[in-house]
Structures are given as C-alpha cells and as structure tokens.
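Q&A log
Question type: sequence-to-structure
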Amino acid sequence: MLSRCLPRCARAFSQALTPVQAIAASDATLKGAKRKVLSDRSACDVELLCAGAFSPTNSFLTQEEYGSVVETMRLPNNQLLGLPVVLDSNGEENVGDVVVLQYQGQDIAALTVTSKYKPFKEKECKEVYGTTSVEHPAVRMVFSRGEYYLGGTLNFIAKPQRNYVAPTPTEIRASLPENGPVVGFQCRNPIHKAHYHVFMNALNSVDTDGNATLLIHPTVGPTQEDDIDGETRILTYEALMKEIGTDKRLRCAYLPYSMHMAGPREAIQHMIVRRSFGCTHFVIGRDMAGSKSSLDSEDFYGAYDAQEMAKKHSQELGIGTIESLNLVYTEEEGYITADAAEAKGLKKKKLSGTEFRRRMRAGEEIPEWFAFPQVVEVLRPHMKTN
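Response status: OK
Response body:
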C-alpha cells in the first residue's frame, strides 16, 4: 500500500504528494478485466504516476486535461505540467472499462477509463516540442502511438520488477535530513569530471552550514535512440558512487522516467518531479533535455531556453533553480569558469565527444581530468561494441 502520509520532520515540502490508492491483484473488481500490455515508456509513466511523482496529477490525462496541457502547459485547475502524460491505445478499451496494466507479464496498475479520445498529434508536437519534424525523436514517438489516448483513475497494484531499485518520492523524502537545502541534479548520460564539478559547485553554493544534500537523480528509462542504454548507465553510476560516495552529502537514486528531449517544457517537468522528491533546488544545464536534428544536427532549442523557462516558473513551482556553470579545464587551476579562464589567460584543455568515443573504441588512454577511471572502465566494452 502506498502511503499518503509525508514523513514527520521539520522540512516544509513545497508540494503535497498525491500517490494513488492501492488495489490487490485479487480484487473482485479486476476479475474478468481487460489487460493492456505497456511499453517501456508507459510503464515508467505508470510507476511515477502511482508514486505521486507528477503531483498534482496522478493519472493519465483526460481529453480536457490533455488539451489544456498541450496549449497552455497547465492543467484545467491552472497548475503547471510541462508535458502531457498520456496512455495511447488502438481502440480496444472503452469508457467505463477497468483495464489491468501489465508490464513484462506483471500486473502493475488498474485504470478505470473515464475518457477516450483522438489526440491532435500535429498540434501536440508543435506546441510541446516546438516542431512537427520527424527529425525530432519525440515527434517520431508521438506518431508511433496508437490512434486513441485514454484517461481515467489509476489504482496501484505493484511496482514493476526491475534490475535496479527506484525509491519513491515518499521514501526519498523520509531519508532526507530534517533541515537544509536539497539540490537535484538530472542526468541521462554517464557522469564525467565536468559534470561532477558542476553539481559540486551547485551544492556548495547553497551549503552554508554543512547540512545540504545533493540528490544525483539519473533518468534510466527510455531516451533518444543514440544514447547509452539504461543498464550500462546504471553500472557507470554505481562505479561513480564508489569513487565519490565518501562525501555524505551526496545521494544517488534512479528515476524510471522516459526522456522526451522537449527542451524548455521538459525542464519544467523535471522540476515538478524533483519537487515531489523533496528537492528545494534544481540544477538547470545549458540546452537541458535538448535535441538535434537527425539530418543536419541543428539544435531544436536555444542554449538558454530551458534556463529562462525554469527561472520564469521557479517561484510558482516552489523550487529554486541553479544554472550550471560553463566550466573548462585549465592546466594551471583545474576546472574553473570559462570567463575566469579567459580573463586570466590560462591554458585550456579540451576533449571533444567525438575524440572521446574514438579513443574509447581504440582502447587509448582517457585523461583523468576528463573522466573518472572507474566510469571509463565500465563504458569501454560498451563503446567498442556500439
């Protein structure tokens, strides 16, 4: 049973959780119910909805909610939601049906259908992702969905069985110190030295008394096609925490979230989710959740669009933003801001992503200023075979 109670502590969380009510798999109302097999993406959505991670919403959007979120980035009650959370269908289900949602043979939730509708997919893509071009991975995702979307009331049956542990918002909140800021750091790729210095600078910027916490919160669900697979990414995070985990201010928890690469609107979604997990601050990187054209590699969003969107809505969401610094590595002073390096005339070192991948595949040395040796060790076999 998922608890509706928040942990009893001095922290005043900015968002009440709204996890769904649980139901036993043997419940009489499920006898003879239709079954629907979920995709990897939809299973992630169900798990997070049931746990209250998308609070204030805790079910797939109805037609009214969908239209409102697509057009205004707000639910009908005027609360922000960056992206529409939807469940697609080929039409087998109808309003009034109770549908058991299955993932990899396991019953994980039940949906009482109250809304069945045909989405406006072109409008959804244009409003949410800023484009209808199939060069964007989320546009391809939307148009691969079924003809209908389903909304209604969710009931939790069981967490999906995975090869990793994904704590719920309630569990993370209960584990946090009673006082002190909590900084959330989102990533979908292996963490290298520059990322480490970005999130440590963010943590230290709010840690005035040693009571701050950094939640490294990688998304390990589906992402764009050319990203490193989730299983390998998890191994890199485990290797990383063995290296940096001696700092007791650092926590790492996996998030079963599927990336949309929606840029500014996805930054809002990330803030909503991390707020649910108890974060008081969130690190916003340049071109967060950005995507490039699959044809000409042009960016779909501006480098600072996500940061500007996040700042605009930060106060309303009740979670502060920390913009990631533009850091470079210098021979003289290690990692410092690019502006400081330029002002001091320091010698910068660079290693492009293309050169990093070439060296990895060739078995060549990767400098320690660029990457953690333990992470490189995990990644190298993957890079050689992909």
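Response note: The CA atoms of residues 236 and 359 lie 18 Å apart.
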